[in-house]
Design a protein that fits this description.
By secondary structure, the chain is an alpha/beta fold. The protein has a domain of 114 residues: ATPase, nucleotide binding domain (Nucleotidyltransferase, domain 5), CATH 3.30.420. It has eleven helices and ten strands. A hairpin with a 5-residue loop joins strand 7 and strand 8. It starts with a strand and ends with a helix.
């Protein structure tokens, strides 16, 4: 099949790709482990990125040869020569056939035309984004999980473990009476501090973010889990209010997998925003939007 565009949405938790034809119809798609441009800061990380691109290309070429690629990567900062080469080569393309940007830019364009509205995205991290009518990207938040990223999956996981281990400081074994702690320790593999330490500090941020699933699953039984998810909604609302204060009232779209963990998140966010601001939650697939941009 000719004229195919390949779209890639690469985040800390997973990397999704899609092939679109000239008519915009998605003809194939797939998913693999997460990757991030932040991995380019170490030799091991660069090797993993290159291997991930090679594996993705092998999966794509089973379905057809793309003519162009549009890829959004978490942590992308604009230095793309090496990344473009690593992605283009296994696909049999010239580097100039590959356009890279942040994953948030792709997600924004999946919901809005430039200047139309605000995107609040909650995945492993979180960010508020606005692309103005001149194509200039503006942000609120999105500073990384060490500094902030309030309301994202990593933040939810960190808040849960912080609460659990503070309780254990005061009353060892208290986790047994907490549905959230039971769910969290079941996912980690045990209640020993060494396991939690390895979980938080020994793996990629996307894997840590998956722990938010355990927090959400226990929210119906554990008021602490419910409170964490409620605060996540407040954190995401703050991003929308920051953009509104700077650029005026516009519709807001909430996207990202962490935002779908529990209704408490979107319901709290809606309650925290003025009635004059429209809030819509979307499950629009950024890799589909990227594929259509590449095909066009």
């Amino acid at each position: 099949m000719s004229g195919l565009g390949l779209g890639i949405d690469a985040g800390g938790t997973s990397t999704r790709w899609a092939l679109a034809g000239l008519d915009g119809i998605i003809v194939a798609e797939g998913e693999q482990a997460g990757l991030s441009a932040l991995q380019m800061g170490s030799s091991d990380g660069r090797a993993r990125v290159q291997a991930s691109f090679a594996a993705l290309a092998a999966s794509v070429l089973v379905h057809g040869q793309p003519q162009a690629v549009r890829a959004g990567l978490t942590g992308f900062g604009g230095d793309d020569a090496q990344l473009r080469q690593w992605l283009a080569a296994p696909l049999g393309l010239a580097p100039d056939a590959v356009v890279l940007s942040s994953d948030i830019e792709i997600a924004y364009l999946a919901s809005f035309t430039p200047g139309e509205g605000y995107l609040v995205y909650a995945g492993t991290g979180s960010i508020g984004a606005f692309i103005d009518a001149d194509g200039v990207f503006h942000r609120a938040g999105g500073r990384g999980v060490i500094l902030d990223d309030g309301g994202g999956g990593f933040w939810i996981a960190r808040e849960a473990l912080r609460h659990i281990w503070r309780n254990e400081d005061e009353e060892p074994g208290r986790w047994r009476s907490s549905p959230m702690a039971q769910a969290v320790f079941a996912q980690i593999g045990g209640d020993d501090w060494a396991l939690s330490r390895q979980f938080m500090y020994g793996q990629e941020r996307g894997e840590v973010g998956r722990l938010a699933l355990a927090v959400a699953a226990s929210a119906g039984e554990d008021p602490v889990a419910a409170a964490i998810l409620t605060q996540a909604g407040r954190e995401l609302a703050r991003l929308a209010r920051a953009l509104t204060a700077r650029f005026g009232a516009r519709p807001v779209v909430l996207a990202g997998r962490a935002a779908t963990l529990h209704a408490l998140i979107v319901n709290t966010m809606r309650a925290e925003l003025p009635d004059t601001i429209s809030l819509t939650q979307t499950t629009a697939r950024a890799h589909h939007a990227a594929a259509r941009l590449a095909a066009a």
